[in-house]
């Protein structure tokens, strides 16, 4: 299993990625060892995720979300509750 996720950076921007371990990945972003994009925008907050059956599907969903407009991403994450 794998996850596609969105974090909100300290500057209000969104970063979308995929991982097999959500907690570890968010911690990596916040420690500065995550994606280059998030390193200068710390801290990040997990605001959305989807469980995918495998890494391939997670990567495909990541690409689909990255192609979405900011407004569409806001609609996607609206009302989503982290459990």
TrEMBL record:
Gene Ontology terms, MF aspect: endonuclease activity
Region forming the signal peptide: none
Gene3D superfamilies, sorted: GIY-YIG endonuclease (3.40.1440.10)
Ranges where the GIY-YIG domain occurs: 1-75
A Pfam family annotated for this UniProt entry: GIY-YIG
Any coiled-coil regions, as ranges: none
Record key words, sorted: Endonuclease, Hydrolase, Nuclease
SUPFAM superfamilies (alphabetical): GIY-YIG endonuclease
PROSITE patterns according to UniProt: GIY_YIG (PS50164)
Entry's family note: Belongs to the UPF0213 family.
Annotated protein name in UniProt: Putative endonuclease
Organism: Sporomusa malonica
Phylogenetic placement of the source organism: Bacteria, Bacillati, Bacillota, Negativicutes, Selenomonadales
């Amino acid at each position: 299993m794998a996850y596609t996720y969105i974090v909100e950076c300290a500057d209000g921007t969104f970063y979308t990625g995929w991982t097999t371990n959500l907690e570890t990945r968010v911690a990596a972003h916040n420690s500065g060892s995550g994606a280059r994009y998030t390193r200068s925008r710390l801290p990040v907050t997990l605001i959305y995720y989807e469980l995918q059956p495998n890494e391939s599907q997670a990567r495909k969903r990541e690409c689909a979300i990255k192609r979405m407009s900011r407004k569409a991403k806001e609609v996607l994450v609206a009302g989503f509750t982290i459990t």
